Amino acid sequence: AIYRRSEGLPDVTFDFIIVGGGTAGSVLANRLTEIPQFQVLVIEAGPDNEGVFDLMVPGFVFNIANSAFDWNFTTTPQKGLNDRIITFERGHGLGGSSSVNGMIYTRGSSSDYDRFARVTAEPTWSWDALQPYVRKHESFTPPVDGHNTANEFDPRVHGTNGPILTTLPALLNPSIDSRMLATANQLKGDFVFNLDMNSGTPLGTGWQQATAGHGERSSAATGYLSAAVRARPNLHILLETRVTRILKSSGPGTAFRTVEFTSGAGPSSPRTTLTAAKEVILSAGSIMTPHILLHSGIGDKQTVSKLGIDSVLDLPSVGMNLTEHPFFAVTFDLNITDDTDPWGEVFIDPTVTNEAIALWNATQGGPLATIGRLDQIVWARVPPSTFNDNVPDPSSGSNSAHYEMGISGTATSLISGSSIVSPASRGTVSINSSNPFDPPLIDPGLFTNELDLTMARESIRALFRFVAAPAWKDVLIGPTAPLVNNPTDEFLNDFLRNTSFANLHPTGTAMMSPANAQWGVVNPDLLLKKASGLRIIDASVYPFVPCAHTQASVYIISERAADVVKAAWGVL
Ligand SMILES: Cc1cc2nc3c(=O)[nH]c(=O)nc-3n(C[C@H](O)[C@H](O)[C@H](O)COP(=O)(O)OP(=O)(O)OC[C@H]3O[C@@H](n4cnc5c(N)ncnc54)[C@H](O)[C@@H]3O)c2cc1C
């Protein structure tokens, strides 16, 4: 059941208290309540996702920023971005960031997961070992327009029975799609057609896949917290309630089974505590998980002590290693005269938008049933000569991408949403007060490592090579200002520093490490180091960011983590 005040909660002993009903938290809530004797409480800071139009309609993804479903964070001034402060959206509500994200479904490369296994000395985090979980969360669903998808994906690498619906684009854009696929054929090499970028080898040009089905967004909340799951008598979801700290239990040893929370909105709001009989599971995401840990005195001893917070566990890696993908748009002017797309103006002309809304309401189809105009993505590597002994390759292996180009177009422009997906830069999440209501200091450190700029320049030059293919000859005008032909390195550095944003894929701020390692925050079983009772399950535990948009990996990791928890309590 759903509650909004802790006073209404039933008088039961909660075996598990999950902090954050986001992407990972929803997976855990579902899987742990499959065991009827487990009583599970989820505490989520934000509201319910149910019935919220902008969260349901894929085409309205850009309406969500700055709403009640966004934490409305900004970064610290970014040195690598000419000291610009940028927005840093995070989901606030059931489903967390999966309720607000861009729905792009990409798993990354097999070597990303093999690197997880290698650096944590835990073989069960490898791609091969994770295969059951790679499929368990997913149900591949035909696109809403019912077109033949035979050459657009490989059904053998997809799940068919999981809670999360995935699909292929439906609002096809033939004049762009045909040229994209022709380019892959004409140039091959880095841009060769890849039938399915989610096979473990993403490299090349392939059809984009999204977490949507039957015209609607599929999020951790719609998928894992369906009406039937919410009705389970052992699942209790407390909304609009913020966890302020996790408290050390009294008695010998270092155990953390108590959460402190409030439904108030400020530092003096009355706080309540509840203690889990088995575990607290922290799933507040890569930004708020370290924020809660630091406010609880779990983190670098000197840093927290300086702020007047009692240090209860000295773990210097908390909040370190923030890894994020820098994102930049690169645009070319086109002149397509045979464009027959009736929905070209859907987000520009209000009359067309209203027609699209009416169509979506009536049929859950039409242009709003799909995410904008993005039909294909290119994943590629920079030349090996970019690296040497002093400048090592930051990617996880030779089947991993360094950069991504999500290419969409209209009759007049071709836009690549480009990103460095194996970055070398690292940042931090920290705090500057003892008030848990103060926002975290988010420093993703974008472009602080020169190598990321080098790779970004190379990706822009790769896009120039891409649009130089014969397929574009009759329609390409040239780069859109301020971009110019044959740009110098200096020009591109300025362009990148002045225009880049965060791709909103933060990971690594509570990273896992081998059980005996002095660094890291959690062990490979995701239990907090040097303590008991507290597990962390969300994107913060990744030691490295995958070369992918990060939601698929959160589903994979959380599904496996649910089994790790069940095994620890003897029910698997
Ligand atoms: C705008 C946006 C676009 C994105 N686009 C894509 C995309 O297209 N494809 C993709 O794969 N990935 C995308 N991502 C990234 C992806 O959604 C995330 O990596 C993933 O959902 C993170 O899951 P998580 O469980 O770690 O955290 P979240 O899903 O963010 O969950 C954390 C939850 O904890 C709650 N919480 C935090 N602090 C507290 C507290 N103190 N008390 C109680 N509750 C708390 C939050 O409200 C939230 O519900 C995007 C993210 C955003 C924000």
Automatic annotation (TrEMBL):
Q: Which GO terms describe its cellular component?
A: extracellular region
Which Pfam families does its entry note? Answer: GMC_oxred_C, GMC_oxred_N
Question: Which coenzymes or cofactors are required?
Answer: FAD
Enzyme Commission no: 1.1.99.29
Q: What's in the keyword line of the UniProt record?
A: FAD, Flavoprotein, Secreted, Signal
- Catalytic activity of the protein: pyranose + acceptor = pyranos-2,3-diulose + reduced acceptor; pyranose + acceptor = pyranos-3-ulose + reduced acceptor; a pyranoside + acceptor = a pyranosid-3,4-diulose + reduced acceptor; a pyranoside + acceptor = a pyranosid-3-ulose + reduced acceptor
The entry marks the following residues as binding FAD, namely 243
The keyword Transmembrane helix appears for this protein: no
The places in or outside the cell where this protein is found are:
Secreted
* GO terms of molecular function: flavin adenine dinucleotide binding; pyranose dehydrogenase (acceptor) activity
Query: Which segments constitute the Glucose-methanol-choline oxidoreductase N-terminal domain?
Result: 285-299
Q: Which residues form the active site?
A: 505 (proton donor), 549 (proton acceptor)
Tell me, how does this one assemble? Monomer.
Q: What does this protein do?
A: Catalyzes the single-oxidation or sequential double oxidation reaction of carbohydrates primarily at carbon-2 and/or carbon-3 with the concomitant reduction of the flavin. Accepts only a narrow range of electron acceptors such as substituted benzoquinones and complexed metal ions and reacts extremely slowly with O(2) as acceptor.
Record-stated family = Belongs to the GMC oxidoreductase family.
What protein does this entry describe?
pyranose dehydrogenase (acceptor)
Q: Which organism is it from?
A: Agrocybe pediades
